[in-house]
Structures are given as C-alpha cells and as structure tokens.
Amino acid sequence: MPIEEICKTLFIILVIVAGLAPIITWIERKQSALMQDRIGANRADIGGITVLGLLHPMADVLKLMTKEDVVPQGANRMMHMLAPLIAALPAIIAFGVIPWGGIYSFGDTTIKMVAADPDWGLLYIFAIGSIATYGAIMAGWASNNNWSLLGGLRASAQMISYEVTLGLSVVGIFMVFETLKLTDMVMAQDTTLRVFGFIEVFGGTVPAFLDWVRLPAWGIFYQPLGFVMFLTAMMAENKRPPFDAPEGESELIAGYFLEYSGMRFGLFYMSEFIEVIVIAGVVSTIFLGGWAIPFLDQATIIGGIGSFMGEGFATGLCVILHFMTFMLKLIVMIWLQMLLRWTLPRFRYDQVMNLCWKGLLPLSIANILITGAVMLLVRG
Amino acid sequence: MVPIEHVIGLSSILFVIGMIGAATRRNLIVVLMSIELMLNAVNLAFIGFNRLWPGTAEAPALDGQIFVLMVITVAAAEVAVGLGIIISMIRNRDSVNLEEVSLLRW
Amino acid sequence: MEVSAILFYIFAVMAVVSALGMVLNVRNTVAASLSLVVTMIALAAIYVLLEAYLIAVIQIMVYAGAIVVLFLFVIMLLNLREDDFAPGRQWLVKFGAGLLGVFVLIQLLKLVGPGLPEVPVVPEGYGGYRQLGILLYTDYVLLVEMASLLLLSAIVGALILAKRNID
Amino acid sequence: MVTPTAISWLHWIPVLPLIAAVYHGLMIGIVRRSTPRWFVIGLSCGTVFLAFLASCAAFGALIGMPEDQRLLVDDVYTWIGSGVGDQVISANVAFALDPISALMILVVTGVGFLIHVYSIGYMDDDQRDDKGFQRFFCYLNLFTFSMLVLVLADNLPLMFLGWEGVGLCSYLLIGFWYSDSDNAYCGSKAFVVNRIGDFAFLLGLFALFAALSDAGTPTVTFREIEANFDKIVDATVTILGTQYRLVNVVGVCFFIGACGKSAQLPLYVWLPDAMAGPTPVSALIHAATMVTAGVYMVCRMSFLYAVAPEASAVVAWTGGLTAVFAATIAVTQTDIKKVLAYSTVSQLGYMFLAAGCGGYTAAMFHLGTHAFFKALLFLGAGAVILAMHHEQNIEKMGGLWKKLPRTKWVFLAGTLAIIGFPGFSGFFSKDEILVAVWVSDVPGHQWLYWMGFATAGITAFYMARLFFMVFLGKLRAAADVRGQIHEPGASVFYPLAVLAFLSIVGGIMGVPQIYGDWLSVGDSNSLASWLAPVLPEAAPHALEHSTEYLMALGTVGIAASGVLVALFLYVRNPDLPEKMAQLLSGLYKLVFNKYYVDEVYDALIVRPTVALSDTVLYQVIDTRVIDGVAINGSANAVRSLASGALKYLQSGLTQGYVFLMIVGAVAIVGWLLR
Predict the structure, then answer these.
(1) Is B105 inside any structural domain?
(2) List of residues 6+ apart from C68 with CB closer than 8 A
(3) Does the beta carbon of C20 lie under 8 angstroms from any beta carbon of chain A?
(4) Fewer beta carbons under 10 A from the terminal one: N or C of chain B?
(5) pLDDT (tens digit per residue) in A72-122
C-alpha cells in the first residue's frame, strides 16, 4: 500500500479520534453520575448555555493547555518530556488497521474503509500495544519520584504479563477464522451461524424448522471465553480501574504520571480514553462482527436495494449503514467499559497478577486446546 | 530496494558495535544488551540473505526467517536467565559491576 | 532513489546512532536501554522494507515489547540510577576493543564484498504468517519442540536464580 | 522345512507367570508393604495353573494338526533388528511350539504347578525373614517364566535369554537364605560355574552365526538354521593352527554350555552345593526343569549333532562317565538331599549318554520320567526333612515306616521308579537309553553300554540304601524331635500323590515297541512317533526283540542285585557298612569326599585366581596403575599444569574472557574461510 495514502488516512483518523476522546470524558462523567445517582457535569456554560455539560471537555482542554508545564527537580528533562508522547502515540496509530467499514466497489474504483489492511493486522495491534508500555515506564522513571517509579514498575509488570494472555486468548479466534487480517475477519462474520448445526457432526440431520434458528456468525458466539478473557486483558493493558494498580490513587497518588501537569498530563489522560476507543474497536471487530449488520449481509443489501434504486446508490447506502453499525457497536463497547469501570472495585496489585498468571493464562491455554479439539471434530 | 550488500554492511556495523560494547562495558546489564544487539545484527543478516533467495510461491525458502525466530526465542530465554543472574548478583554483591565478580580468580 | 531506499538509509542511520548511543552512554542505563529499543524498532522497520513482515512484528513484540521492557523493569527494580564504577585500566580495554572491532568489521565487509546477485522480486505470500507457520509445523517441527523446551528450562532457571530463598 | 502356523496366544504361557513375578517384585522392592499370603498363593499358583491349562490347550491344538505340519509360531515383536540389505538378521521375541517344546512346557508347567502348591506348605513356617514368603514365590514365578522362554524360544538369542534367566533364578533361590554366608557362597558358586558354560555357549552361537553369515544366510532362528544347515556342514574352522569341522566345534561349545547348566563333568560341582536352597527349589530347578535345559538344547540342536560324530562322541562319553562317577559318590553320602543331588547328576549323565549316541527320543523320554520321579523324590525328601524338623542326615533318621504312613508309599514309588522296577516309568526310559547306546556307532559304545549297565546297579544300590536308612531300622533321631515327627500337611502331600501316580504310569507315554502289545498302547513307541518330525533317529532299531528282552532282563537283574546288597548291608547287618568303610578306608574316604574334586578345583583354579586377583590385579593394577597413574595421576597432572601455568589466564576480569572469546571466534572463522 502506498505510504502517502496511509499517512493521509491516519491523519483523518487522528482528527476523528482526537475529537472523540474529549467527548468520551463527558460520557464517562455522565455515566458515573447516572450510576451514583447525581446530576453530574453541568456547570460549564457559555452565557448560561450548558448543552448537557458538553462544554466541560472544552473547558478541560483549555484549562490543561494554559497550565504550567512543571518538570520536577532532578528529573531527566528529555525523557520526562517524551514520555507522554510515547504513551499517546501507539494508542492513536493502532487505529490504522481497524476497519470502519467493508470493501465496496463503485464501478471501477474500490473503496476500503480502513487505513491499512495488512495480512497481519491483529499482530500489528499487539505490537503497537506492547510499545505503549514505554510511555508509562519512562514517565515513572524520569519523574525522580518514588511513587512514580513504583507506578512505572507496576505498569511494566502488569502490561507485560497481560500481553501474554492477550495474545493467547485470541488464538482461538485465529483458528476459527483462519486469518489475522481484520477485514477478512469481519467478512467471515458477515454471515449466520446455524445453531443446531452441531447435530450433523454427530451424524444426524438437522430438521428444517431448527435450521432456521440462527445466530450472527460473530466471534463472541464461537469464542465466548475468548471474548471475556480478551476484554479483560485489554482493559488491564489500559491500566484503568479496576486494573489501575499502576496509578493506584489510594496508594501511589497518581502513579507514573504523578509529576505531570498541564497538557502533558492531558496527553496521558487522553491516551487512556483513546485506548478505550481502541479496545472497543478491536473487540467489536473481532468478536461482535465489526461493521456487519446481523442477519443482513452486504450482498443482500446491495442486491436488494440495488434492484430498484441502482447499484451505486445501494452501495453508498450500504457504506453508511455499515459505518453506523460499527459506530453503534463501538459505543456499546465503550459504554460497557464505563459500566465495568464504575461497577467493579479495584484489584489489589497481587490480585491483578494472580488473575493474569493463575487465572487467565491457564484458561486461555485450555481455550486453545478445546478450540482445537472441537475444530478437529467439526472440520475433520 | 537497496542492494543486500548494504544490509549486510549495516548488520556488520551493528555487530561490531555490540561486540565492542560487550567487551568494554563493565555494567552487566549493558553487556547483556550489547549481546542482544549482536544477536539482532545477525538476525538482520539472516533476513537480508533470505530476501536474496526467497524461493518460489510453491516452495518457499524461509530458512533465514525461521532461524531468526529461533534466535529470538533463544534471546528471550537468555534474557530471562541473564536477568535472574543480575538480580542474584545484586543481592549478593550489591553491584552490577562485572569486575567485582571475580570469586573464581586464582 | 526510490522511497524504500531512502527509508532504509534513514532507519539504518537511526539504528547505528542509537546502537552507538547505547554502547557509549556510560552515565544512564535507562537511556541506554531506551536507545536499544530505538535500534530494535529501526531494525523492525528495515525488516518491513525487506518484506519480512511477520518477523518485523515479532521483533517489535518480543524485543521491544518484552525483552527490553524486562531490562527496564530490572533496572528500575534495582534502582540503578547511574553506574559510577571506580576507574580501572579502561583506556587499554577500550583501545584494544576498538582495534579488534575495526579488524573484525574490515574482515566482515571484505567477506561480503560486492558480487551478490540482484535482489529478486519476492513470490506471493513471502514473509507472511501462513508460509512460515506451515514450514514451522512441518519441516521444522522438531525445532519448535526444542524451542519450547528451551523456554521451559529458561523459565525454571530464571525462577531458581531470582528466588530469594531456595529451600 | 515345516511351514509355521501362526498362533496369537502362545506368548501368554510364559507371560502369565511373569505377571505374578513382576507384581511380587514391585510389592517387595518398591511398595514395601506385605501382601496377604492367600493373595500371594492365589496369584502365583493361579498364574502357573493357567499357564498349565494354556499349555494343555496348545498341546491339544498341536495334536489336532497333521503330523508333518506341527509347528505353531507366535511372533510378538522384533527384539533385535540389525543389518541392511540381504544381511539382515532379526531376533524376534517369538515363541514356537513343536512336539519337543510341547512336551517340555507340559513338564515345566505341570511339575512346576505341583511344586508351587507344595511350596505353600513347605515355606509356610519359614520365619527367617518377613518378606521371604512372597520373595520365594516371586523367584519361583520368575523361574517358571524363564524356563518357558527357554523351551518356547524360536531363536537362539531368545533361548539364551531364558537360559540366563533360569541361571539367575537358580542363583537367587540357592542363596534364598542369604543371611547364612554358606548359602550365599553356594549361590555364587552355581552362578560362576554356570557362567563358564554360558561363555562356551555364546562362543558356539557366534561361530554358528558367523558361518551362516558367510554362507549368505544370516539367521538365528532354529528352523531357518536347520533349513540352511547343509550350507555349512562342510565348513571348517582353524583353531591354533588345526582345522576342525565347524559343526564339531559348535557342537562341543554348545555341549560345554549344556555341561554347565546340566551339571556334567567337569562342571557338575555346583549342583550338590545347590542343595543349600529350599527343598522345593531343589525339586523344581535342580531336578525337574532347569538342569534338563542342557538335554533339551542338545535335542533341539539334534540336526547339528546328527552330522557331528566327534561332538556326539564327546557328549556320549561325558554323559557316560558322569553317570558312573556321580553314582559312586552318591553311595557314600549321608545327607539325604546330597544323595539325590548326585543321583540327579548321574541321571542327567544318562540322558546325555543317550543323546550322544543318537537316542534323542530316549533322552527326552528319560527327561520326562526323571522329572516326575526325581521331583517326587526331592519333595518326598522335603516332607521327611519337614517331619524331622530340618534334619537332613540320614544316619539320624531310620524307622520312619511307622511314623510317616502316607509319605513312605509315595517315596517308595519314586524309589522304585528310579531303580527301574519293571512297569514303573524309569524302567522303560532306562531301557530305551541302553538300547540306544547298544545300537549306536559311537566309538567304544560297548564300553558305554557297560557303564550305563553298571550305573543302573549302583543307582539301585544307593537308592535302596537311602530308602532303607530313612524308613527301616531303628529310629535314630535326636531325642527332642523324636516325639514330634508328624505327617506333613495337605498341600505338601497331594502334589506328592500326583507325582507318585505320574512316576508309576508316566512310562506309558513311551513304552518301547516290544511291550506295546502287552500293554495295549499301540503298535509302536508313541513318544517316538510324536517326536519323529523334529528329532532324527540316528539308527533304526536293528535289534532282535529277543535281544531287547534279554537286555531288559539284565538291567532288572543288576538293579535287583543292587537292592539285595543294600538290603543285606543296611537292614540285615547294620554294623557291616561301618566295618567295610574302615576296611577300605582309603577308597571310602576318596569316594566320601567326592574324589576331592572340589579340593582339586580349589587348589588348581580358585586359589590361583584369588591369589592373582589379590596380589597382581588388586594391589598392582588396581591400586597402582588405575588408581595411581590413571586417576590420581591425571588429576595431579591437570592440577600441576593448571596451578603452574593456566591459572594466570583466570584473571577474574570478564572483559578479558570476552576478548579471548572474540579472538578465538575470529580465528576459527578466519581459518574456516581461509
């Protein structure tokens, strides 16, 4: 793929995501207010107009930008400055491979609703995610503060541990879809799954009325355990509650970004929210069918509407529908994360590690074994 | 694409840098990192030569890349053990200075 | 010069500079290991240019994402801010090492020399996970088994070494 | 060459006892928890009994086949595979059943089962160590397994495995009460003497295999050796400058192996000492089964001996001499088990005498009947010993006729059988042997015949002497056991009864042709026709029936006179033997001390060997050369070199090592790419 095109698309994504992140802070505020039975962010106003508190993100950004950028004494100035950028950058460029829509052809031209579509798309996300560790480590180290150092240590240990589970928990999905390419994965999910098809594995025949009982062929139905583990590991990578041991407000004040202020603090803050979007995007792409509309695949839409409205119009409509579907799933997943974040109490640090090494890791390996056995049974 | 000679040249330079690092630095951690650098230089040479003789689509010749995978595996194992050694050394000597590890000297 | 060649030289310079930065930085071990990360990432980029995609991704995941993080973790765990060792006969060592390095470098470069064939066009699927995976689990399956055994023994060894009280 | 028929369950016959042995071994050696006795008994005897049933079934299967096709082979797996191209050999774990091995497995499992049952009672009061009971049955089962492997083996290496296995079990069982150092010594002696024979056996095996390889048909399987045997009949082998026919060399080598196992001159010395083991062991191993392995092997290799007259002559003469020699020793022994032991040696000599003279059928016949009556005699002796509270000296017995009302009858049956009382089993088999000797063309066969004839008389004499001294006359037992003499229990007696029955009628299986009409067992020797497909009969019976009757009459006559002399000496005039011994004190001492063979061996072989080992091998070679020069010397050399020069390389500076490593690597790579 031409490099210029990738750069262009990345720029567009950057704009979208950077705009989205502040809005998510608003969502979070509202969500927490809702769950805690209060009204929540509604004070910021321009001439008395509050717009449901939507002005708060703007106020936040303004305030952060005008704050003084403090570098503590004895800190490594360069690394202190670089750390927030390194934390935020991977989160943003991870969007490069997430498909916002499918592949559509308008006559001779083909449109791909994804910035880059390499064969190894999912691995790319893992690789980028593993680099994200450095932001936290550098910040913790460069601040010349013991709390920060502890936070950085915890962050590195936690992220490196959960990466293992993260990788292993989706191996089952690789096996089911037989690809690592995210667009291919979504296309494989743009169909239906016969719920009673397993009868044929044991030599029976499926009655016709049962053959109509179908589910969307989403990854979550193939790999429910994988979904749970993947979501958990992703959330732990993000270091937000309940996995916020590296920040640990009650123990480490603010952990690795304790000594940050102004826009650099804002970058850390933003990167967390961007990662929430990344998680939502990846999870909905892999497990929730991405842009695929349940029970209504791309060919059906284009064929059905195209028959009386014209091919071009139908494809255009399809693009919009798919994009909307994806955004809907994205928002649902973001909301789910908010819900979890405000529902569950924090884990203690040892609990975080125990969950990873003694809970999720063996489970994910068992999941691979079971998936392999079942696939051997079903596909022979 | 650049000629493979340049890739190999880069690999040689990195290897020699790593070698000098391993030979001159007294900080055990840096020595370990220098060794990693040497391994990486070798990996680069493997990848470069594999690029030169890639085989065909039916019979791919990916021995170089497979060897790189193995080198990465070995490197990971080596780092795990090496860092274990460093930790126990810190515990016993309170230093990562290589020159202080001379108990077996005559 | 085409784009890929320009990129190659950019990344090559980046790799060499950061490698030198790692070796020559005697004050700050953390900075040295971060330089190593830059070298790793530059190498990964070069792998992409050499169309070894899977290796590039694994390079980042394993080297940058795991190995150097482990280095950093240990450095931070042991809180090694600076290594201010007592001065020794370092000039002799450095002089000797430099001499040896130059000698080896000249030998290596002489060894490669010019005369390698033209870089061919890669076949379809080169460097992808599919071909590599099939090879790994057919022709090289013994190697995979050996690697798994090696990793297991490394885990056990690291545990034993790092354990505080062995009993 | 017979085409083998496949059979899938034959391997269970040896495996069944093995299961029990392995179980016992695990329980004793690893689990170390005592097993209830009823379970030990059930498992050991049960498996052997099952093996016996399986043997009967296999025998039946063999009978049901056409006479010239009687060969069942169970090829379990390839044990040793070697070679490429047409030079491949494979020694399989394969079991072959033909008429001769069928006979053997019936004897081994049948008599073996009876002895297992007998052991229950015999070992019951053994308190010498707490695991002893189970250990004993473990060894017995292991022995049964080894013996079955030996007789069922389809090839020489597997047979050798069984051969070694029985030797091992013999060693273990002789030294069963190892806490007594004499017993342990006897076990070692048996092992070492056997080892000499085994060495020769191996040499023969290698020579045979080498010759077959040279002939282009490398094989170790019996029937393939036989099929390809004509290729090496004329082969020669040069030893110390003299050319010998290969078959003679191989035959003699194998026979030396047989001498070790079957206690022939000059390797018989271990068998009398082997009586140190428990009595059932003496019966099972040293009378009924293991010692017959040599005879079985010679018969199994009969196709070889049939074309090797010199080797056959060696076999025959050794057998004949052993028969007379051992019989004379038995005359003077006072230990009840030793008498029987020398008797066994003598009877084995008989068998070899027959085999060497080409009477393989007669040898196998005597092997079978001897198994019955000698097992009976040993077990009976065991019963007597039990009754006498472990008193084995016959001079302290006497007058047990009243005390042991059941045992005396079975013992009498065994005695009559071995003496050759007409109609008893020993009578027929001994006659067959003497006839075979008479008609053979071995050099000096007349002499051999008269030796056999004389042995029959001596045998009758010493057996009668034994019986009279134990059962008749005055009760000479020590005062404290006198009142406690009692009949042994049921598990001891019933095996004796069965064996007694077999000893009496066992001869029916091979009644010679001349009595066939009287006894209505068919027109010919049924055993001979059964074995005919596998055993070559050296010469047809060229004797007139009248001559045979005459010879039988002669044998009965000499036996009867032997008995009468014994009656005269030991019952009528009990003081006379003492006087005669004093009169002929030199001769008596010579015989009583077994011709001083053990002492001669001791002086000629044991002492020099020990002295050589102690002075030269231990004090010089081991201490000075191996320890001093090789071990300490090399260590000292390394140490002085290292501390003198190499230690300066050990600078403690890791960077220095790195430098050297790099220089070395560069040098090696540079040299490789020069």
Answers:
(1) no
(2) B33, C33, C36, C37, C40
(3) no
(4) C
(5) 887 778 888 888 888 888 887 887 788 877 777 777 777 777 777 777 788
